[in-house]
Write a structure and sequence with these properties.
Layout: H1 30-36, H2 42-65, H3 71-86, H4 96-105, H5 110-134, H6 148-170, H7 181-200, H8 206-214, H9 223-244
Helix pairs in contact: 2-3, 2-5, 2-8, 3-7, 4-5, 4-6, 4-9, 5-8, 6-7, 6-9, 8-9
């Protein structure tokens, strides 16, 4: 039997023609919009944002608290699979900074912006409380304290990288219909966690930072670093995309 190959001009992976899957419910062709059925209701989108963010923060807490040597791989993989699972419903942001970037890019309705943030932050807190319960009686070792300026720099840079990858791989016309967006986004988080996790904690996500503080992995006195730097990274990523792609609306 002949091995199927990617159609000319279409994205493929190795020698297989993977199905076109477009996350973030953006830039779909009419045929795909018809197959997808009616748009999901707002509550369904918010629930998916809660579920995806929950498992991301839960994976962060469980892998870090258990001392897993390859925690960044688990964290990046968790984000990847949740994006593939929920991208067709909510866009699978799972990160307030990403939601800000997508809003600036023009692919998130303003009415959904705050509810997305609420769902993401609530999920982070709930996941952190469950991790804390599961490790009851086992001290976390105390919240880590990181240098302020280095933390701001690396949190900004890798949150920018994450949001930049999101808007380009999951919302741009040039990559519409690809089946690699979840892998690209998850690996960005993995690279950041391996590279600068020891400098800032490697949150790149205000919801993760809040959850980490609840789990006593990050000091509450330094949580502003993650919120300010991460949101700034998302904001700049959205602005850069618009500057580089003025015709991609």
């Amino acid at each position: 039997m002949e091995t199927p190959r990617p159609a000319a001009g279409k994205p493929g992976f190795l020698l297989f023609h993977w199905p076109k899957v477009q996350g973030f419910r953006l830039d779909r062709g009419d045929a795909y919009a018809e197959m997808a059925g009616p748009p999901p209701t707002p509550m369904k989108k918010y629930l998916v944002e809660f579920i995806g963010t929950f498992f991301l923060v839960f994976t962060v807490g469980m892998s870090v608290r258990s001392g897993a040597a390859l925690a960044p791989i688990a964290i990046g993989a968790s984000l990847m699979v949740m994006i593939f699972a929920g991208g067709h419903v909510s866009g699978a942001h799972f990160n307030p900074a990403v939601s800000l970037a997508v809003l600036i890019r023009g692919k998130l309705d303003a009415k959904d912006f705050i509810p997305y943030w609420v769902a993401q932050l609530a999920a982070g807190v709930v996941a952190a409380l469950i991790v804390t319960y599961l490790f009851a009686g086992k001290p976390a070792g105390g919240p880590a304290l990181h240098g302020t300026v280095p933390s701001v720099i690396v949190e900004f840079l890798f949150t920018f990288a994450l949001a930049y990858v999101v808007v380009n791989s999951a919302t741009a016309k040039g990559t519409a219909g690809n089946s690699f967006y979840g892998l690209a986004i998850g690996m960005t988080v993995m690279v950041g966690a391996f590279s600068v996790g020891s400098i800032s904690g490697g949150a790149f996500n205000p919801a993760v930072a809040v959850g980490a503080a609840v789990m006593q992995l990050v000091s509450f006195s330094q949580i502003w670093i993650h919120i300010v730097a991460d949101l700034a990274g998302g904001l700049v990523a959205g602005l850069v995309f618009n500057f580089l792609n003025p015709d991609d609306k």
